[in-house]
Amino acid sequence: MTSIRILFIADIVGKPGRRAVRELLPGLRSELGVDFVIANGENAAGGAGITEDIVKELLNYGIHVITSGNHIWDKKDALKFIDRYPMLLRPVNFHHSNPGRGWGVFTTEGGHTVAVINAIGRLFTGLYDSPFDAVDRVLQELEGVPLRILDFHAETTAEKQVAGHYFDGRVTAVIGTHTHVQTSDAWILPGGTAYITDAGMTGGLDSVIGVKKEQAIQRMVQGLPIRYEPSNRRVGLEGVFLVADVDTGKALEIQRIRRLIA
């Protein structure tokens, strides 16, 4: 049996998150023997959106595919440059007129083929097409590609869990993103799909979902119109590490990752 080792880096928040990737990813790749790296980068630019320079920066750090979510268009230039970067994904269930693409098939340095799909939930996020129907259509296109990683970017735990069970046995992993708080339910579902409700976040972990906690307190407790800024306290990287069977696409292992910058 041949296996592949995949690292998924949870939502990168601002400059502190990019710093965590720069400083911690090389050691993680060496320690875990990582073959392929995926990261959610929709908050990589100041905590909201992504720029072309940051796409290049993250790719230079060794990330192979960048997924996103509802903040992908927060930096309007993304509408113009996304088509030049097939490794930068936006949710597959965005309207068909949106630029970019919601999935792709990629080849690792070892010659293995990995499909990455990005979808966004609909509960409390927006008026998107059904993520379940959209991913179903993609899976029909992926006959012969057993390794399939789904970033399911959603607000509610229930919708993420539904995605896990609905796609169990048809994808290698369903990895929840968006809420920035790492959950304790990393496990392999009965059909062989690795699952976690939320992979966490990468950036200032002493924060409120990545932003300075003092600002979040002022907005939520005092009702002041505070502009959020990324926290740079207790900077670290969170995510999940996967091992999967190359031939079947079944997950063999999933473990939560958290590393702090010393």
Question: Would you mind describing this structure in some detail?
Answer:
- 24% of the residues lie in helices and 27% in strands.
- The protein has 262 residues and is of the alpha/beta class.
- The chain has a single domain (3-260), classed as Purple Acid Phosphatase, chain A, domain 2.
- Strands 1, 2, 3, 4, 11, 12 and 13 form a 7-stranded mixed sheet that branches. A 6-stranded mixed sheet has the order 5-6-7-8-10-9, with helices on one face.
- A hairpin with a 5-residue loop joins strand 9 (187-188) and strand 10.
- The longest helix has 19 residues, at 14-32.
- It is globular, with a radius of gyration of 17 Å.
- The mean pLDDT is 96.
Summarize the structure.
This protein is of the alpha/beta class. The protein has six helices and 13 strands. The chain has helices at residues 14-32, 52-60, 78-81, 131-141, 157-167, 213-222, and strands spanning 3-9, 11-12, 36-40, 65-67, 103-107, 113-120, 148-153, 173-177, 187-188, 194-196, 201-204, 235-245, 251-260.
Strand content: 25-35%
Can you tell me the CATH architecture? 4-Layer Sandwich
Q: How many distinct folded domains?
A: 1
- Shape annotation: globular
Question: What is the name of the CATH superfamily?
Answer: Metallo-dependent phosphatases
CATH topology: Purple Acid Phosphatase, chain A, domain 2
**Count of alpha/pi helices:** 6
Top CATH class = Alpha Beta
- Encode the helix/strand succession as letters: EEHEHEHEEHEHEEEEHEE
Query: Would you tell me the overall average pLDDT?
Result: 96
Structural class by SSE content: alpha/beta
Task: Give the uncertain stretches in residue-range form.
Answer: none
Number of strands: 13
Radius of gyration based on Cα positions: 17 Å
